[in-house]
């Protein structure tokens, strides 16, 4: 399985709720820079948090790649989601090439859990950072971090 984990681009510092924060212009540019790394990959799904900034990030990637399938929105990719639950959900998908679009602290903890088997050293995922993981199964400690790209 190949799994890409993308943190949303830079977002506005404030909104009525955290879930409503939108991408800034710089955040959009960051996302497009990261999306370029995904060109030509055989992704089967783009799965995103329901938060506005993650939805905007996923839509930008979707359009930049000319991805045929719609973005899947799930409740288990919000900032405070449990990384163990995310692993369970990914495994149930039965897909081989997936992009997840989410937030800190989840993305850092998720990458660490997949690579090291624990969350004690979260991966340094700044806005629009893209982690590429590979392994037989999406299980704790059983995936290899192939690359971690940071946006400009």
Automatic annotation (TrEMBL):
InterPro entries: His_Pase_superF_clade-1, Mito_Ser/Thr_phosphatase, SixA. Pfam families: His_Phos_1. The keyword 4Fe-4S does not apply. The keyword Hydrolase applies. SMART domains: PGAM (SM00855). Keywords: Hydrolase. This is Phosphohistidine phosphatase SixA. It comes from Pseudomonas fakonensis. The lineage of its organism: Bacteria, Pseudomonadati, Pseudomonadota, Gammaproteobacteria, Pseudomonadales. The gene is sixA.
